[in-house]
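User: Quick sanity check before I run a bigger batch. Here is a single chain. Can you write out its predicted 3D structure?
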Amino acid sequence: MIPAGRGLLKPTWELPTSTSFYIDIRRCMIHPGFVPKRLAIAQLPKRATVCCSPRTKLRAKDVTPYAALFKALADETRLDILGFLAAAGDAICVCQIEDHVRLLSQPTISHHLRQLREAGLVTAERRGTWIYYAVDKSMRARLTEFVTLFTG
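Assistant: Done. Predicted structure follows.
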């Protein structure tokens, strides 16, 4: 048992009066009798010039149209299909895409192609019984518009 009045050690050192810092009370909860104080520490001079250019605030309505685009790009399989279509340069039959992505079943590949089509990343054209997919030409312009939102 600790006798009354003992158990709390008081520091025997003192800080110079030309400096000040703030001690957070939540960080010093191990000392129940502690009262946070602002000690005198040299005040830093305030900067007269601004170090950075003012940032533009993005609003949700500015970035909402791009959410579906990046959601479609967030899957490895869709990126693989998009890369395959971009490398081909021209429209590719869905049967060639199925041959490229062999590990997945046809309904799964169709699902991924639908996600890419709804996001506006690829275009689909029916030729007879087959559907031919190609990278949408406006995709690059949409991505550069998104980048300019951040760069101003």
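The CA atoms of residues 93 and 132 lie 4 Å apart.

User: Great, the batch can go ahead then.
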